[in-house]
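Troubleshooting log. The previous run stalled partway through. Resubmitting the same two chains, unchanged.
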Amino acid sequence: MSQEIAILGAGMHPWGKWGKYFVEYGVAAAREALADSGVPWQDVRFVSGAATIRCGYPGYVAGATFAQALGWQGAEVNTSYAACASGSQALAAARTKILSGACDVALVVGADTTPKGFLAPAKGYRPEDPDWVRFYLGVTNPTYFGLYARRRMDLYGDTLEDFAAVKVKNAAIGSKNPRARYQKCFTTEEVAASAMVADPLRLMDICATSDGGAALIVSSVEYAKKIGKGDAPRIAAISTVTPTFASGVVEMPDIATDSAAAAGIEASSYRSSIPLKAYEEAGIGPEDISLAEVYDLSTALELDWIEDLRLAPRGEAAQLLRNGDTSVGGKIPVNASGGLACFGEAVPAQALSQVCELTWQLRGQAGERQVEGARVGITANQGLFGHGSSVIVKR
Amino acid sequence: MSAKPLAPAIDGWHTMDMHQPHLIGTRCIDCGTYFFPKQSSYCRNPACDSTDFEEVELSRTGTIWSYTNACYKPPEPFVAADPFEPYAIAAVQLEQEQMVVLGQVVAGVGVEDLKVGMPMELVLETLYEDEEDTKVTWKWKPRSASGAK
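Second attempt completed without errors. Output:
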């Protein structure tokens, strides 16, 4: 009857720019998650790895790589690649395996070592590849964030001070997170003094890329009960749905949107599609949410996500922020971990790190970042090529 | 102005009419969906399984959906001028096609000159020069400033 699985353990290698081999981060995160769960490594029967691709290199077979590093013990392996949603897809693979009865306990792990600066596509002359085309024409990731941010300003009256306030909020709470890369508070003035990157967004409005690793030990609810962890946080939904044709929002890495010229087209963008499916699957609504971890690739994007998650009506997220409602201690804390603003993006680990944060929050183990009485949390993230995800964790 | 011959930065994506250029897309014969870049083997409308497409010139005017700029040099394959010159970028909504197309904004027009809803038109301008050619691509230009260039 239950479509839920239990989260027995969570672990992370601190985010940073360590320059080590990514497997080290993944192993550290997996070992922490295993220790947290109390499950012996030999009992894990499925290893689900989140992979990344960099500089044209076709990626590592992440599941097997991590399984080998932790010591081959005959578990089945899987590797998922879905850009920033890779972690959620790896988690979804583990859930399917567990719910089908094929295994009791699974390790889900993702880790990355990122290059400096802009994430860039593979080389060559490849006009059939939209990711190549947009870089060739001078359209980077911050371009898209800048377009969305400017539209909020022109349509809803959001201000540069609002965007800076997101950074100030996330930096303040992230300064209390020992796993965050940046643990420093900033002021609105400091954000305003940072270099312009993609107007209206400045350097401090846009997230960096980082090294990091995150892992979860998940199991069937029956197994959790058997080992005395029946009250462990549970995954109630994993949504990885696509948008519906013809989305009018131009998304990375496309140079143009779909055309809605044909008759009978009712479109929805993927940022608004993904949470709907998650709510439906969990059988709950936005009013049930205690806290949200969203993909603040830019400060302004956090505000878009708040509206896509239906935590505020369209155009009103900035008002929530100004009221202090999205801070820890407010009505609906957003990015109590400090978010990407404090972590920076470690692509295959990021969606899992969001679930780690919700796990600790729902257990009441988030220390100075604790959201009082947290019962239900939701994540949202987005990547290239229509890949995004939303996960609901509840107690 | 360089004496090098003009060549498109990407072959076949726009006409080479320097005065009234058009982007070249395709249109599904069955359902009427437009595609840019060109799509001619499958229709992405989930209600249509057509394999018949015609090549069409897209509207060369539209209105700004949103805009931004690039203050830092993008990575390769972008070919940057030295020193790098920041440029504005516009996402322009085409009425008839009901789609939004990104492009650089012409040199000399910055974000302070733009606004959501502003009418724009398509022009061709240099993207970069290589040893043989001046590579041109489509750029957006405010319609109020049309005529010059």
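Takeaways: The longest helix of chain A spans residues 347-363. Chain A touches chain B through 50 residues (CB under 8 Å).
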